[in-house]
């Protein structure tokens, strides 16, 4: 392994962050993906099939936007090691906005595209927006209107997409060498994105607070459940010990009574000592007194039932011993306490600071 120090970059990421909104989103993201104290487990899946491009533009809050561009979908067999349709639907559910671009020159109305658009409309219709891209290539205004009518008609044939007030703004990238009379509504797209960014900052801060409360509540619930399980285990353990003691002590006392009955008091004192011998004599005397009360023809039956009772006590002792609930180890409880302290001491104060930045930015924008 080389001992050379890594070369420092000329423009680190921290120096490129200039707005409070950008810093808030970055700080919240770091709290979720911190390698040691993460609030969210990153699941592998599509990451191997994603490629990224980074733009350094700062105009129109571009640094706060992450575009996820899916490939153009056409009818036919596209073999992937994962379900493409489900992946696109899932990404649409996570995104703040879903833009559907219909290209007048391509296969915009293929069945596969319309199926996915209809599925997205069922799950997130409030953030689904339609645009006619490359509108300047659609020909004259009459041609453009005909293309848009055709697209709208195809969409409205789907039950999930049939709605009133269907809007489809026209957008395109202006070309100075090929001026077009087509109205370019791309500024409206930028305004929609900027409005969504402001909402996303607020939602991110609110979600961070909810997640912190949820983690703390989950930890408290698990610790409370652990205390309840520990109390239950103590109760079960006590039942097991009592049943086991009866299952062992009673037959031993029964057998010992007959053995002691064959010995004289002098022999018993020599074997056990005067004090212990007297206690044993009292116990065995009670057993023999009860034994004499049993008729001789019923003594065999009594021994059978007595043995069955002792066996039942041993069985219950084993049964109760296996009824305990699994409890947390000391290491697990210590780890949960560390998580709770981290959230209370680090995450929540940082969230309060981020919220203060957000309010300051809102006040500054309002003054402008």
TrEMBL record:
<keyword id="KW-0378">Hydrolase</keyword>
<protein>
    <recommendedName>
        <fullName>G domain-containing protein</fullName>
    </recommendedName>
</protein>
<keyword id="KW-1133">Transmembrane helix</keyword>
<dbReference type="GO" id="GO:0003924">
    <property type="term" value="F:GTPase activity"/>
</dbReference>
<dbReference type="InterPro" id="IPR027417">
    <property type="entry name" value="P-loop_NTPase"/>
</dbReference>
<keyword id="KW-0472">Membrane</keyword>
<dbReference type="GO" id="GO:0007005">
    <property type="term" value="P:mitochondrion organization"/>
</dbReference>
<dbReference type="GO" id="GO:0016020">
    <property type="term" value="C:membrane"/>
</dbReference>
<keyword id="KW-0812">Transmembrane</keyword>
<feature type="transmembrane region" description="Helical">
    <location>
        <begin position="300"/>
        <end position="321"/>
    </location>
</feature>
<dbReference type="GO" id="GO:0005525">
    <property type="term" value="F:GTP binding"/>
</dbReference>
<feature type="transmembrane region" description="Helical">
    <location>
        <begin position="238"/>
        <end position="263"/>
    </location>
</feature>
<keyword id="KW-0342">GTP-binding</keyword>
<dbReference type="InterPro" id="IPR027094">
    <property type="entry name" value="Mitofusin_fam"/>
</dbReference>
<keyword id="KW-0547">Nucleotide-binding</keyword>
